[in-house]
Amino acid sequence: MAQYRIDWLSPDDPPPVATVPAAGDSPFLLIGDHAGIAVPARLGSLGVSAADMARHIACDIGVRGLGEALARMLGAAFIHQSYSRLVIDCNRDPRSPEAIPAVSDGTLIPGNQAIAPDEAAARIAAIHNPYQDAIKQAIAPDKAMGNARVLVSLHSFTPIMQGFERPWEIGVLHGGGDERFAIAMLDVLQARGGIVVGDNEPYRMDGTDHTVPRHAFATAMPYVEIEVRQDLIGDPAGQDRWAGIIAEALTAAFSRI
User: What angle do CA 195, 200, 203 make, to 5 degrees?
Assistant: First the structure.
């Protein structure tokens, strides 16, 4: 069993993992690597301004609400991280320098400068490990029974990055492992019409991704990583609208595999 440093978190800090339990026998497991915005009390503000903490560098804006809406619509479990990606990025290999970013999209993160190995290990043990273990435990019964539940990783992206306006409204990321479901999802969304769909845009699934490869690739678990533009899911109405679009597409894609 993984060793956690829950004592590193204070009694007033939220648990590292939040879960909306499944309300039915859904074939989907929803996850949100960057849904959280909390910072442990011992780290203060990480030296980051409130304005910067409200930006995409701190969390995937809108993903928590999107995931909760999707969970309601699908009767699926939604496992998401409680803490900001600036504390530790749970979609990065914990050994990577990107796991505890010193700079994010040009913004210096003072609380992440010259992190001692013991401090990095404590963040990994208290936050990264419990999140990854929760996903592993949720998947384990399906593997034991031979079922092929689909891992659905939810992310969001900023409308403008480094001066470049991103036209996509939703992106489907894939690359490695069993891509059949992701490709089916892409086909369904493209055939729907009326929305701008990116195929591995605005990001590609590559060596920087950690969660989906860790849990889905080795066992050929069907998966899809979804990116939704943040200005479209910044409020409950937008989150419900896009949850409806995604739920419909997930269901249609599942019927094809």
Answer: 105
Domain 6-254, what fold? Answer: Aminopeptidase (3.40.630)
Residues 69-83, mean pLDDT to the nearest whole number: 97
Query: What's the alpha-carbon Rg for the chain, to the nearest Å?
Result: 18
With 0-12 / 13-18 / 19 or more C-beta atoms within 10 angstroms meaning exposed / middle / buried, residue 117 is exposed
| pLDDT band, very low/low/confident/very high, at 161 (cuts 50, 70, 90) | confident
All structural domains of the chain with their residue ranges? 6-254
Confidence tier at 146 by pLDDT (50, 70, 90) = low
pLDDT at 144: 58
Q: pLDDT tens digits for 215-242?
A: 999 889 999 999 999 999 999 999 999 9
Calculate the CA 138 to chain-centre distance: 16
Task: Supply φ then ψ for residue 43, to 5 degrees.
Answer: -100, 0
Nearest to 213 by CA among 223, 226, 228: 223
